[in-house]
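Notes taken during the Thursday session

The instructor put the following on the board and asked us to keep it in front of us for the whole hour. The protein is Helix-turn-helix domain-containing protein. We were told not to look anything up and to reason only from what is written here. First, the residues (239 in total):
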Amino acid sequence: MRRGTRYGALLGPLLAGGTPPDLVERAARGLGLPERGRYAVVVLGTPVPEAAVAEGPDGDGARWWWCGAGDGDVAVVLLGAEGPAGAVARLGEHGAGPGGMSPVVGSPAELGTARRLAGTALLTCAPGSREVVRLDERLPTALLVSGPELSARLLAEVFGPLLALVPAERAVLVGTLEAWLECGGSVGRAAVRLRCHRNTVFNRLRRLERLTARSLSRPRELVDLVLALDVLRLWSAPP
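Then, after some discussion, the predicted structure tokens were revealed:
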């Protein structure tokens, strides 16, 4: 792994996007980046822990180049045999995060786009989270954070009456919906997770349906509820 002013100066043109091809080629050559490879960019919301920055490749052959960027750090990763999952796991082992990882790109010329997409992935992390997430696993949420005005409208339209409840009452209904979704739509399993009777879960869900005027049994309306729930998770307080 490599880090420092020199690497930041060389990575800057690659990560900015829109850099002329000759400058991209020179910067890549200076960093020792192969012309073709499986690359990803990681954007952290906090500085990378020193334990995560070491000389030499990872056990699976992945190589990292770090540079500072505001409150956090940015890395270009030449992925190893374990691919993106291995890189994310390594960051998690060293307590890095929150962070976002771009989709895989095939050359240094594509790192500017990857940097932008990694930044979008970072925005999908909930407040206070330490997770490092891959954009490819957060695409619906990424759409929401890319359009904050529409996200605010969605939240108000779908969850407006729910947000008017006192916080404790709202938390119970939201928590029940989350448990039901995580249990694959099973009321029985959600009841076990929440340590209450299945009729209690059923009644809470029916109340949520009445408040939102949307049915959990209608796919399009369920999509509205899931997306609104994602917005609620991302914002520490409703807009």
